[in-house]
Design a protein that fits this description.
heterodimer, A: about 180 residues, mainly alpha, Rna Polymerase Sigma Factor, Chain: A, Arc Repressor Mutant, subunit A, 2 domains, 8 helices, B: Jelly Rolls, Phage tail protein beta-alpha-beta fold, 3 domains, four-stranded antiparallel sheet, 7 helices, 20 strands, about 25% helix, globular
């Protein structure tokens, strides 16, 4: 006669476990999905779909590390699937035309302009790779093929670009944020 | 903290991550690295800024986790029960109320002199999360093993809920009829929007992320505003406002697309527990598009002033908007 109660308690525990994972990994997973999809709504859908699956198979979740790996891998696969269907690109392009540039316009235009001038000052190969990646939205593999380089070289050059830009722009970003908070 | 597979996180891996090229293992390594150290987190945020500065599309903005979780629960419920309830959401007024142990509810029932009305509606979530639309169209999401009770049609001067266990309330605004949750021997009254309540053996704690709440017992109590936390010592029946504002409190996020200034004001009123007064009613029809993430109300009203060419004057909890008209 104890079994039903124990089963109920076990069930409750599993539901709260899923919610625990949700609170722990929601932000990280959403950001990860966003880096791939470049779309906040699509990224949210991806994370939601992955958690819904986890919810359905909650009776098999136990060990935290394996759940974490499962979540990241499932988000990754889900996002690649979405991209493969090319839905994102169309939607992304459509949205950019309508409202994309309105978001946080005050800060972004100012910072963008200054960052652009810093991008122009990057070493030639570094600049070309960064431009293809950031402004033309090309994948590392595509850039490597176009420039007859290894993917590893593209990775290294992108890292170099980030390092240079981050250091140069650090002061600028801080001063601009303060400027807008105090003088706007 | 060890990174999975001992991936060394440097700018190369960060650039890969931000470019959407990171494998799940690399993404995990980046997230572990960010969490491991404040310096790492700062470096990461700077890298994100560089990426945002060179972007041509949207920025990363985290959607409200509570809204996503509620949607998720609804989906899970629909899947498991095969039915979908039509639910009205009032997103901006989402009130998060999480309560810990259940033991005190029994204690409250014994101590409290208030007689429950005859026809009390009781909702208990058994095995799965239960969604219940309250008489005022507020939404209660009741966790398994938890119970709420209220009067039909919320008869009476206030909207009163008795709670045992965990529940999330998504509350519609109605200033003349306060929304109160009774727990233990105290009450939590909604004055604004997002707050959290939890209890342990000695305390009941409330932390307010946006808006304001009042926690009280009989005549004694405290009002907590955005960024504040307070606690109640059960043994001494004493309320304490934490002197240091809670750190790491995120301010709310908004995305307005061609929204009228009236709608924007309504959302900001809920989120920040403020009152917006239009000195020129014509200004309500002005529209703007913008998004704000983790910004103070002062910042947001500054942006509104510039964008719409209006004057916003903040006096305590009231914002006066004046001006001739808006830029079209």
């Amino acid at each position: 006669m104890h079994l039903p109660l124990e089963m109920k308690q076990g069930h409750d525990k599993l539901v709260s476990l899923v919610e625990h994972y949700f609170h722990t990994y929601y932000e990280s997973l959403h950001r990860y999905a966003f880096t791939i999809l470049k779309d906040n709504d699509q990224a949210k859908d991806a994370v939601q779909a992955v958690f819904l699956k986890l919810w359905e198979k909650r009776s098999t979740i136990d060990e935290e590390q394996s759940v974490k790996s499962y979540l990241y891998t499932a988000v990754y696969n889900y996002c690649l699937n979405v991209k493969r269907h090319d839905k994102v690109k169309d939607r992304y392009a459509a949205e950019s035309n309508i409202t994309g540039d309105d978001s946080n316009q005050l800060v972004s235009k100012e910072i963008s302009q200054r960052i652009m001038s810093q991008v122009a000052a990057l070493p030639p190969q570094c600049r070309l790779i960064f431009t293809k990646s950031r402004f033309e939205g090309k994948k590392y593999a595509t850039i490597a093929a176009e420039m007859n380089l290894s993917v590893k070289t593209v990775e290294a050059q992108m890292g170099k670009a980030l390092k240079i830009l981050r250091e140069k722009l650090l002061d600028l970003i801080i001063s601009l944020v303060i400027f807008f908070l105090w003088y706007s | 903290m060890n990174s999975p597979g001992h991936i060394q996180v440097d700018e190369e891996v960060l650039a890969k991550y931000l470019s959407g090229e990171a494998s799940p293992e690399e993404a995990m390594a980046v997230d572990n690295w960010v969490k491991a150290d404040d310096d790492n987190r700062r470096l990461f945020e700077q890298a994100m800024k560089v990426w945002e500065g060179t972007n041509t599309g949207s920025y990363w903005q985290l959607p409200d986790p509570q809204i996503t979780l509620t949607a998720l629960r609804t989906q899970a419920l629909a899947k498991s029960s095969g039915r979908i309830k039509a639910i009205r959401w009032s997103i901006a007024a989402a009130v998060l109320l999480l309560l810990g142990a259940t033991g005190l509810y029994v204690g409250w029932q014994k101590k409290n002199a208030l007689q429950p009305p005859l026809a009390l509606i009781t909702r208990t979530a058994q095995d799965i999360t239960l969604q219940d639309t309250l008489p005022d169209h507020s939404l209660a999401t009741i966790q398994p093993g938890s119970t709420i009770a209220y009067t039909p049609g919320f008869s009476g001067a206030a909207r009163e809920i008795q709670l045992s266990g965990n529940a999330t309330f998504d509350v519609t605004s109605n200033p003349v009829k306060p929304f109160r949750v009774r727990v233990g021997d105290i009450q939590v009254q909604v004055l604004g929007t997002v707050f959290r309540v939890w209890e342990d053996s000695q305390h009941i704690r409330v932390q307010v992320n946006a808006g304001a709440v009042k926690m009280y017992r009989n005549e004694d109590g405290i009002v907590l505003k955005s960024g504040q936390a307070g606690s109640y010592e059960k043994a001494h029946h004493r309320f304490i406002t934490d002197s240091i504002p809670a750190v790491g409190t995120r301010l709310p996020s908004f995305t307005f697309t061609n929204a009228s200034l009236k709608d924007i004001a309504t959302q900001l009123e809920k989120a920040y527990g403020i009152h917006v007064v239009f000195k020129n009613k014509k200004l309500e029809a002005c529209t703007m598009s913008s998004s704000f993430d983790n910004k103070t109300k002062e910042f947001i009203f500054d942006v509104i002033s510039i964008t719409l060419n209006v004057q916003c004057r903040i006096e305590k909890d009231t914002v006066y908007i004046s001006g001739m008209g808006c830029n079209e």
